[in-house]
Amino acid sequence: LLVTTTVESLRDFLKNFKQGSVGLVPTMGALHAGHIFLINQARQAYDLVVVSIFVNPLQFGAGEDYFKYPRNLESDRQVCEQAGVDVIFAPDCSELYGSATDETMRVVPPESMTRVLCGRSRIGHFTGVATVVTKLLNIIQPQGAYFGEKDGQQVAIIRRLVKDLNFRTEIIAVPTVRLASGLALSSRNQYLQPNQLDVAASLYASLQRAELLFRAGDLRSEVLIAAVKSHLSPSVALEYVELVNAESLMNVEAKITNKTMLAIAGRVGNTRLIDNIILNPSKTIPL
Ligand code: AMP
Questions:
Q1: The whole model's pTM is what?
Q2: How many CA atoms within 13 Å lie on the side-chain side of 96?
Q3: Which of 109, 137, 226, 254 would suit a FRET pair with 88, their CA atoms being 20 to 30 Å apart?
């Protein structure tokens, strides 16, 4: 397992690997079983697996958790070693952006995708994500890159980025890894107190209530949204629950007709959590 911190040393290494295919798993570290699932998928499909570990300041807003975000390169290194990763790319901020982060060039996705859902409260977040993913794709030029469906808006925006800017990388979206309670694994779960775990699990439990109705044949947005709201723990400070087209992120009006994302965000104490499920009318197996 090679750990590199500079673009130059990474490129030098990749130069000697021209024949094989490269799979990239971009992360912010604090690796958990969700990340490992992405790594395993990449491991099976590509000759060389690169994991990037970079807490990207561009995607954090003022007052967000950039400074307290968990960082532990040594334990991440062990996780990667165990999972058969070939290369960790862990640059520091100046390596990617130089000294003036404020002045760096940005990649700006369409507002129709960045100003909805999480983008309403996290102004600039998805521009930060698109910028760092663009840089990683250019630096590493992988054949495939892996992203978690847990961040469904991110997946949609990155697919759009790759299409609009003609990247050659295939984007692979991987299902969400959950605890037995249904809570989606997240590095931010570390902020939760033990007694908040059940409350946090109600995000997914409430999405499942809507899924049950959907599978029984109810396609009405209002009914599905109401089902989520009524089953959510009252201790969750709900930010949004919405049905959107999984690709365009456009709001679903009266009824679900296409592949739809039911997405939720809320706070448990000070911890902001998100989750989503995909409802696909063409793939529904009646209960
Ligand atoms: P992060 O380190 O949180 O930026 O996540 C890095 C990648 O792992 C992103 O593509 C996430 O969507 C993905 N990921 C995070 N949590 C999970 C999870 N519970 N299941 C699957 N993928 C995840």
A1: 0.97
A2: 28
A3: 109
